[in-house]
Specification:
alpha+beta; elongated; two-stranded antiparallel ribbon; twelve-stranded mixed β-sheet
Amino acid sequence: MGLFDQDKWEEIFFALKKNKLRTFFTAFGVFWGIFMLIIMLGSGKGLRNGAMQGMGDLATNAMFVWTQQTTVPYKGFPRGRRYNFDNDDTKALLDNISEIEHLAPRLQVFGGQDNNNVVRGERTAAFTIQGDYPAYNLIDPSNIEQGRFINELDIRNKRKNIVIGIRVYDEMFEKDENPIGKNIRIQGVYFKVVGVFSSKKNDRQAEEENSEIVMPFTTMQRTYNFGNRVGWYSITAKKGHKASVVLAEVKELLKTRHSIAPADDRAVGSFNLEEEFRKMTSLFVGIDALVWIVGIGTLLAGVIGVSNIMLIVVKERTKEIGIQRALGATPFQIKSQIVIEAVFLTTLAGYVGLALGVGMLELISTILLQSGASSGMFNHPEVDFNKAILALTILVLAGALAGLIPAQRAVQLKPIDALRDE
């Protein structure tokens, strides 16, 4: 009596059909367990995808540094002193801290409702102007839809070139009009468009970035009379170096250069994305672990139900088992039939639960995409193929274990006692 013995499978199907309601509810417990596991895994991935999309391709080891008022008197300077970073700080950082991979000084000028700072023909609008180095697009990349980003020649020659966000293009140009090489007037000065970009992020942050105009950092210093002032720094650490260590070196150097007390922790503002990213990653690892614990617990509850039902089935088929034993059936053959029956029931119910779970996630993903809600903190819920296979493998093994106890109970029956069972 092998695995593919037709008589064996006919017996299994007959036993399952004999009490359809009981079979249904037994299978439903397993189905529901794996269905919920898949839904929870997919939801966890949806949260992760939303959080990752919210960051775009922003370097996860990035850090940002800006000036704040001093809080400690030092070298004759009073507390509450304001100061600015400058071009000499940029050079000092690059010369003294070799662990820095990318360093991008930045400046920013806001446009407002009462300050329509951008003009093209009869069109006027208010947009935020960013002064950047090419390195910034390596730290926080954007999609270059047309043309190019700011380059080193733009910086060196203080060129009047700009890269505009996709929303700026929509408002200042006709549909399908080629903007490259065209001029836009900003604060009375004409600039040539060399590129169009779009944000890789989502929601409000993407909307804000798409409404920005980027010009060479050195050009902005001259256009807006900033002198050699730097607004703030975006920095990434080289591979193999912790951002927290590099950030500490950066702050120490800047404090020294601007006569700030070493103990003044508030004078140099900073944000370490690497640390926040690590916390977020740990959070999602914790969510995944919780999902597996709850999901497998639910799954085992269904499998235990299968085991209990199989015990009842063995009791109902006591006489039948006695006849098989009397006709020469070995204990292995008796056990294998019970185990195969349990595995078949759990695998079938599990596969249906897996398929419906994946289908439900695809439906949710489609609805979110069509409604535009996928751009939020929940985006494209899905289950990794490997995790789905792992869940199904666990289910098959659990089904085999569920059948072992009833199978052992079956082979312990003596043929003579089984035949006398009423």
